[in-house]
Amino acid sequence: MATPWGVGTLLLLLLASGEGAGPEKPRDFCQGLDIQDQYDPFYLNRTGECFARCLQLGNVSCNPEKLERYWLHYEFYLVEKNLEDKVDLPFVKALVQNFSTDTSEDLLFSLRPAQIPRQVMMGEDKPPDRVRLPRSFFASLPGSRSAVRLAISVLDIGAGDLFKGPQLRLEDGSSVLNNHMVGLSVGRTPVTGLPEPLEITFSHQRQPPNATLTCVFWDVNKGDWDSKGCSTELGAEGTVCHCDHLTFFALLLRPVLDRATVQVLTHISQAGCGVSMIFLAFTIVLYLTLRFSLQRFKSEDAPKIHVALSSSLFLLNLAFLVSVGSGSAGSRAACWIRGAIFHYFLLCTFTWMGLEAFHLYLLVIKVFNTYFGHYYLKLSLVGWGLPALMVIGTGSANSYGLYTIRDQENRTSLELCWFQKEPALYATVHGYFLITFLFGAVVLALVAWKLFTLTSVTAGKEQGQSWKAVLTILGLSSLVGVTWGLAVLTPLGLSTIYIFALFNSLQGVFIFCWFAILYLPGQISTPSSSGGTARLDQAPSVSHE
Fold it and tell me: What DSSP assignment string belongs to 311-380?
């Protein structure tokens, strides 16, 4: 009888203890709790999942500092405690091997993606991704050892927050090439100041546009990337990093437009826009003066189109100066309005440049059957009305808002009210500009062909026709917006960005010079004196209003 009573009591006690303890709470490995020095496959796989789970905008609670420390110490573990010579996991590939310090050759290791690092023997082709340790490397290590245990690892850090640091966590365009880090370690002994640096080669197709490639290492003390002790050697098919210490390395892609560059470009644009506005105002005043003093100015369409372009460009420059000067000041509604106004006058400028090209096509290319009733009125409906419809459509999608440009240290370089949704920016600005620019470029090319053909025919009769044709093309190019086309060349480097900012902001000066050459009283009274430059724009009007 004692046995059943004892068993019943035991069951009762077990049930009671089970109710009190409850189910074990699942571990959150991304918090970095209880994972220190735990490097068996279970912990490695669970912690490796955090590379993808710890996203900046995700709902997973993460502790990047603890997780980064965990992986930095993993190389120490590989050298000091790991008994295996290879690690092959989805997010980390590693080679651990003993080497004699009395070596007379450089050591070369392959870092092929998705493969375990391996030593490349003499006679083999050099792999595109590789590490080279100079023969003097082992002799430079502290202490006297006959052999050294070396760990080489490739860590796939993914697109999450880990190993991003302050420079990369905010979306400023910076990134780690292929999200790969290369680690080298001989244990906890720090290795710095190598007399002959090691070489790490990262292969890539070509240097990305508007970005610089910089060799960096992970600074444990700062918790960020640093380039001290590393130099960058750019190549056609890859970049070689020369570093004088051991740690985790990567190739960092940074935008060309750092804080200082953005500020300089902003000052150039502001100065250029100010000068351009003055000359655009001169153009408008000159037109009004000639319109009231000369009867034929009231019926010609070409001067009206030039002034409409000048007006839209003047208002665009004014909107730009206001937007840059005010930055993010004011409410969201005020920022929305400033962005919409800036967008509207930009589209008006593009449209009137396209209409300049259309008018030029009728005057020079088509010539015959070019009568349109109320011609300028119809052009005005397109020039001012079409942009309004596009802005209304863009605004209804709530695409306007605060736009921020950040530098390499994630500090705000420039804030202005512009687009907050990229699809609308690409469709209504980039796409629309491309259409108007290509149309203007084609028309300008046809006009140039006609002018130089005419020049070759009349070369024996009149002197100086070639340079007049060149001046004519330069003047017309300011009307159809060739300076805006320099934006296509900006991926070539920083110098083209400066050229674009300078010449594009001075478009108003070029328009005034062209307008003055054509329409000053001296030119009007003697049109033949300006040769090809004046006669082209003084063709008969294409409408009668």
Answer: HHHHHHHHHHHHHHHHTT-S-HHHHHHHHHHHHHHHHHHHHHHHHHHHHHIIIIII-SS--EETHHHHHH
Give the three-class secondary structure for 100. strand
**Under 8 Å between Cβ of 309 and 476:** no
Q: Which residues of 450-474 are buried (b: 16+ CB within 10 A; e: fewer)?
A: ebeeebeeeeeeeeebeebbbbbbe
Q: Cβ distance 230 to 176 under 8 Å? A: no
What's the token pair of residue 269? 């644009």
The closest of 428, 468, 434 to 353, measured between CA atoms, is: 434
Q: Report the distance separating Cα 524 and Cα 515, nearest Å.
A: 12
- 44-86 residue pLDDT tens: 888 888 887 777 545 457 888 888 888 888 888 888 887 778 8
In the 8-state DSSP scheme, what is residue 430?
Answer: I
Distance CA 78, CA 83 (A): 8
Report strand pairing: 248-255 vs 175-176: antiparallel
pLDDT at 42: 84
Q: At what angle do helices 259-293 and 302-326 cross, to 10 degrees?
A: 150
Count of beta carbons in the 10 Å neighbourhood of residue 331: 8
**416 phi and psi, to 5 degrees?**
-150, 160
Encode pLDDT of 348-387 as tens digits.
999 999 999 999 999 888 766 667 888 999 999 999 999 9
pLDDT at 99 over 80: yes
